[in-house]
Design a protein that fits this description.
Length: 347
């Protein structure tokens, strides 16, 4: 009861200060309508006339900013230090500053600023020059529109949409940086998309005699029919079996890259997704159907290497699927290998 009497007896200035303090204690992005302001319990007897008087004076002092939401008048709190800036500006400068302030971290294009302020270009340039001299605003560049001149508040950092994120340096795409990250990411996915089979593919030396020459020929023919005869044994890896669930996700790849420290910056999942898209377009990885994981489309031997065949890859021994059972005196050996003889004849 005593508090109600004190509020009722407060001067207009005290009510304005109390109303501003109550609004400033709320979240910074909160928008107040008439009912919100009355609900603060500052205006005695919910007097609308008194509320209008207080909001008008606070708006005049720059501590409240009038807005409209769904056709209804609303107010937003302005920090005292920001309001102090407006007091040092002329009407045109304050108008220009208000539009730049509303653009936040995205910035506002000079052409749009001119249309919204409806100022002559000479006046607009003078206002911008004054605001820059007072260190209230700064010019910025956007990677999406490098030829556009945009402005934003001096103390803000441009959004990633404007700077391009970690893949850009001073507005220019860092191709080498993207390439290095792409190589690391592809190698990481390869390591979780392929596996090394046992060295002898489960065939022990003591079992070599059990494989006849006819069986070896059939194995070779079957391999040729499947089109796997060119597989390089030095890069002998096999894809994961159907139904494998261990393919890395965007979250796992991002976490692994940040832990490796290769990027030098903390990568976000959205940025990693962009990198994965690039690798997908290059045909190096793909998204696993009905899964959140990614898998590599190339074996580890092709990663970062050359597509030119070497001597071992040209020789039939280097790509023979039954190399492990080839031995002197065995069912398959170099003396009786027809493919080896054919290869020697074309040299």
């Amino acid at each position: 009861m005593a508090d109600d009497i004190a509020v009722a007896e407060a001067s207009p200035k005290e009510l304005q200060n109390a109303l501003y303090a109550s609004c400033a204690s709320q979240p910074a992005d909160k928008i107040f309508d008439q009912h919100d302001l009355l609900a603060l319990g500052v205006i005695p007897r919910d007097d609308l006339g008194l509320l209008l008087s207080c909001t008008r004076q606070l708006t005049k002092e720059g501590l409240l900013k009038v807005m409209t939401k769904d056709g209804v008048a609303c107010w937003r709190v302005v920090k005292k230090e920001d309001a102090a800036k407006y007091k040092t500006l002329s009407g045109d400068e304050a108008l220009v500053y208000s539009y730049i302030e509303s653009s936040a971290r995205e910035g506002i294009w000079l052409k749009i600023l001119r249309v919204r302020t409806n100022l002559h270009m000479t006046i607009l340039n003078r206002c911008l020059k004054t605001l820059e001299a007072k260190n209230f605003i700064k010019p910025t560049k956007s990677v999406k529109f490098p030829n556009r001149k945009t402005y934003m508040l001096a103390h803000l950092q441009p959004s990633e949409a404007a700077t391009g994120g970690p893949f850009y340096t001073d507005g220019v795409l860092d191709e080498e940086f993207v390439h290095q990250l792409g190589m690391w990411t592809e190698k990481y996915i390869i390591g979780r998309s392929w596996w090394h089979p046992p060295l002898n593919d489960g065939v022990k030396k003591k079992d070599k005699a059990r494989t006849s020459k006819e069986q070896a020929i059939r194995l070779r023919a079957a391999e040729l029919d499947r089109g796997h005869a060119s597989r390089d044994r030095s890069k002998d890896m096999l894809p994961m079996p159907p139904g494998y669930q261990g393919y890395p996700t965007v979250q796992e790849i991002t976490k692994a890259m940040n832990a490796s420290g290769i990027s030098g910056v903390v990568m976000k999942e959205a940025e990693m997704l962009q990198l994965l898209d690039v690798l997908g377009w290059d045909g190096k990885i793909e998204k696993v159907p009905n899964s959140k994981g990614y898998r590599a489309l190339r074996q580890v031997g092709r990663w970062g290497g050359s597509n030119h065949a070497g001597g071992l890859r040209e020789a039939p021994c280097g790509r023979c699927p039954i190399f492990e059972i080839c031995d002197d005196g065995g069912p398959v050996n170099a003396k009786t290998c027809e493919y080896f003889e054919d290869w020697l004849n074309i040299l």
